[in-house]
């Protein structure tokens, strides 16, 4: 019972992070299961089965808060489901360990770009146009495959790529990625069912993760709506950088003081980026207030306000002071 309670709390925390940042539910949950000695295929299968419920709740919550672009969902979810099914089916025979450092390097670069992008004032990119299927379909296919074979990865692959495009609001990126993950999780679960059978799913673990995720889903959808895009982008960038640094350090077999030094430098850089993002957000808000005040309708001198007209009439009816009468 204690273990299941801990798993429920992990599911709650993972869904809060995933719903607010568009990533990390599968990564967090799978890491815990692997640490507990669960086989990789069984861990990924159980997490994806739980995600069917959590992503459905997250999708409904994001939709109610206006965080979903259904056009993007439709064009990324179906290829993602195909990739997830393929990855789940061949997980027992295909290893992604050799590709992990390359993927981590790509994500690290995207995360660093986000830190730089969101540490400066945001500007509308109206000339960019909409995201096209030739970009969304391959992205969904790769993200779905990585998600199923790695026990998580839909958010870490899809969210940064959509954010870097600069054509969607961060909250809509997160809401759309979380909503489309419902089909991805379902397709992965079907693939695992075919490849492993029903005994490949740890049902008590699935139930615990599901309960925690269902509780956190509406809270996370509300949180992503009120958090400013400037800060949200900087937070996501830092999470991506620090998360993939661990994979890169392990791939390079760097030990001793190197990991501590790397995390210290990156942590300091993340803090600086957050400070710059906060300042940029304040400057942007002040500029908007100033622009709104300047664009207000100018008073017409030919039209006198009612209050001023009444005051003038009242003043004309009152007896003038003696000095004024003499001067008149």
- Most strands sheet: none
Average pLDDT rating: 76
Q: How would you sum up the global shape?
A: globular
Number of strands: 0
Low-confidence runs:
301-328
What is the gyration radius calculated from CA atoms?
Answer: 27 Å
**Gap between N and C termini:** 96 Å
* H and E string: HHHHHHHHHHHHH
Summed up, the helix count is 13
State the helical fraction: over 70%
How much of the polypeptide forms β-strand, as a percent range?
Answer: under 5%
Helix-strand category: mainly alpha
Structure notes:
- The chain has 328 residues and is mostly helical.
- Helices cover 77% and strands 0% of the residues.
- The protein contains 13 helices and no strands.
- The protein has helices at residues 2-21, 25-35, 40-64, 70-89, 100-118, 133-150, 154-165, 170-196, 203-226, 229-251, 258-294, 306-317, 322-327.
- Helix 2 packs antiparallel against helix 3, helix 3 (40-64) packs parallel to helix 9 (203-226) and helix 4 packs parallel to helix 8.
- The longest helix has 37 residues, at 258-294.
- The relative contact order is 0.17.
């Amino acid at each position: 019972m204690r273990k299941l309670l801990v798993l429920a709390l992990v599911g709650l925390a993972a869904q809060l992070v995933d719903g607010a940042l568009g990533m990390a539910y599968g990564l967090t949950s799978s890491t815990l299961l692997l640490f507990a000695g669960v086989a990789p295929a069984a861990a990924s299968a159980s997490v994806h089965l739980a995600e069917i419920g959590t992503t459905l709740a997250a999708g409904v919550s994001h939709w109610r808060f206006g965080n979903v672009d259904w056009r993007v969902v439709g064009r990324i979810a179906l290829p993602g489901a195909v990739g997830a099914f393929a990855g789940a089916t061949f997980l027992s025979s295909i290893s992604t360990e050799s590709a992990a450092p390359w993927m981590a390097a790509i994500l690290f670069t995207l995360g660093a770009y986000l830190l730089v992008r969101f540490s400066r004032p945001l500007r509308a990119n109206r000339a960019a146009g909409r995201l096209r299927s030739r970009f969304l379909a391959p992205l969904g296919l790769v993200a779905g495959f990585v998600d199923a074979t790695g026990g998580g990865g839909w958010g870490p692959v899809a969210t940064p790529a959509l954010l870097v495009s600069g054509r969607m609001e961060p909250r809509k990126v997160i809401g759309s990625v979380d909503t489309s993950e419902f089909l991805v999780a379902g397709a992965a679960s079907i693939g695992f069912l075919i490849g492993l059978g029903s005994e490949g799913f740890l049902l008590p673990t699935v139930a615990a993760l599901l309960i925690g995720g269902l509780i956190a889903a509406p809270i996370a959808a509300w949180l992503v709506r009120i958090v400013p895009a400037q800060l949200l982008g900087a937070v996501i960038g830092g999470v991506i950088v620090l998360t993939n640094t661990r994979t890169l350090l392990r791939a390079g077999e760097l030990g001793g003081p190197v990991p501590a030094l790397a995390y210290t430098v990156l942590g300091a850089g993340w803090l600086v980026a957050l400070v710059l993002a906060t300042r940029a957000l304040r400057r942007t808000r002040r500029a908007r207030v100033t622009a709104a005040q300047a664009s207000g309708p100018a008073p017409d001198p030919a039209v006198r306000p009612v209050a001023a007209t009444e005051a003038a009439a009242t003043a004309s009816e009152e007896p003038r002071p003696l000095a004024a009468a003499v001067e008149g």
